[in-house]
Design brief:
The structure holds two protein chains of two kinds. Chain A has a single domain, classed as Autotransporter beta-domain (Lipocalin). Chain A is 4% helix and 60% strand. Chain A has an eleven-stranded antiparallel beta barrel. In chain A, strands 8-9 form a two-stranded antiparallel ribbon. Chain B has one domain: Sandwich (Immunoglobulin-like). Chain B is mainly beta. The relative contact order of chain B is 0.28. Chain B starts with 12 loop residues before the first helix and ends with a strand. The chains are: A mainly beta, B mainly beta.
């Protein structure tokens, strides 16, 4: 039964892309979740630090490359710390805070700009709502809220930078998700299917009145333990973003789109409680609304440590 | 024999400037409409009085680049995501306060 539910949901979210778009101006923290459900358990804390580098220099119009030239290239270097803790055996809370060491845009007309500063604070909860120990199948509803506490008024020279390059998104974001996990081969093969929806609240400041498009994220993660401490994983992720809207509530044409990533990952466990992983995100399919600068690749290195506060 | 040594404080040029409450005399652009993309841009100038002035520019969507040393003149352009009416604000400030003015530039589709 579970197999069929799994297949039905998978088919729906990957095949049905009508009416959903992504956007060019996605400021704020990058997605750091790898689509799996690591850690967990009562009184178990997991602390992780990650570094992310993202590079973009290709314009897309619809699903085709465009000759349009405006921003020559753009990149960011972001680092964050994530702490999660199992309040009970089923409930895990988490918090994440990051910093942009550089968020830069270089234009074809010999201009450039750069921002640095704190990103937003993300607080989350994950609950083990259903567990079938015999079939090794679990369902986790997840909730996250993004608090725009980061830098949103960064200047470069005499200019307050536009929102797409500010370290903070400036917007409260509410993220609802449902994660399915299934283990095979005595746990050596893990399957995670993550579905989430993110609603961005309208930014209303003296300078800005803007709403990012909502984000629909679906990912399938397959991890296989090739050795006791070494796991190879592959994630297939689909991201749709609705169009953004301006101060009058009108949809902004050249925002929104659909991007699909394939993300190979290698994870190594050492000293029992430490993990290091390297992930490469490659956007193999893009269908943008209007002409937009799109991402070439993202590389993420993560180091994590588990701490068990249960009495021995 | 007596030596007399003295030091005279040399004021910085900025300290010599007598400032008054800033006032923007004019905020003007050479174009009121531009096409999106970097090939066409508007040059906006903010002329202000008050002495010892610094300028800050802002817009919600679009790209502003400073053209001169004191920051009173900028270049404005935008990509396709910024099509429409854009309100650009110039703020002139000194020790006596600050004042802001806005100008509207429309980014069109060619």
């Amino acid at each position: 039964m579970c197999k069929y539910i799994f297949l039905c949901i998978f088919s729906l979210v990957f095949c049905c892309s009508l009416g959903v778009q992504s956007q060019c101006c996605a400021a704020g923290n990058p997605i750091t979740d790898d689509g799996s459900a690591s850690g967990g358990g009562k009184k178990i804390m997991e602390i992780s630090a990650l570094g992310t580098y993202s590079y973009s220099d290709i314009y897309f119009k619809g699903s085709n490359k465009s000759d349009y030239e405006y921003i020559d290239y753009s990149y960011f270097l972001y680092s964050s710390v994530n702490i999660s803790y199992g309040i009970t055996s089923r409930l895990k809370l988490s918090a994440e805070m990051g910093y942009f060491f550089s968020k830069a845009q270089y234009f074809v007309f010999d201009q450039n700009r750069n921002a640095t500063g704190f990103g937003d604070l993300v607080i989350g909860a994950q609950y083990l709502a259903y567990r079938n120990s015999k079939r090794l199948f679990n369902i986790f509803p997840r909730f996250r809220i993004t608090l725009p506490v980061g830098d949103f008024d960064q200047e470069d020279g005499s200019v307050i930078l536009p929102i797409d390059i500010q370290p903070s998104s400036g917007s409260y974001k509410y993220h609802l998700g449902l994660l399915f996990s299934k283990l095979y081969m005595d746990g050596n093969l893990a399957l995670f299917f993550d579905n989430s929806f993110e609603y961005s609240q309208r930014i209303k400041t003296d300078r800005t009145n803007y709403k990012y498009g909502n984000l629909y994220n679906n990912s399938l993660y397959v991890g296989y333990k090739i050795r006791k401490a070494l796991t190879l994983a592959l994630q297939l992720r689909s991201q749709y973003r609705d169009k953004a809207s301006n101060k009058d509530g009108d949809l902004i044409h050249a925002t929104g789109g659909h991007v699909m990533f394939i993300s190979p990952q290698i994870r190594y466990n050492f000293f029992k409680t430490w993990n290091v992983s390297l992930k490469y995100d490659y956007p193999f399919y893009k269908n943008m609304n209007g002409t937009q600068l799109t991402n070439n690749y993202v590389v993420t290195l993560r180091l994590s440590k588990s701490l068990n506060f249960n009495p021995n | 024999m007596v030596f007399l040594i003295s030091c005279e404080k040399e004021d910085s040029p900025a300290a010599n400037v007598e400032t008054t409450t800033p006032e923007i005399v004019s905020l003007s652009s050479d174009k009121s409409n531009i096409n999106f993309g970097g090939e066409e841009f508007a040059t906006i100038s903010c002329e202000a009085t008050g002495g010892g002035l610094s300028f800050v520019w802002e817009v919600d969507l679009g790209d502003i680049f400073v053209l001169n040393e004191d920051g009173s003149q900028v270049r404005f352009t935008g990509s396709e995501c910024c099509i429409g009416e854009k309100i650009i604000t110039c703020t002139a400030s000194n020790d006596n306060g600050s004042v802001s003015e806005t100008i509207v530039i429309v980014i069109d589709k060619p």
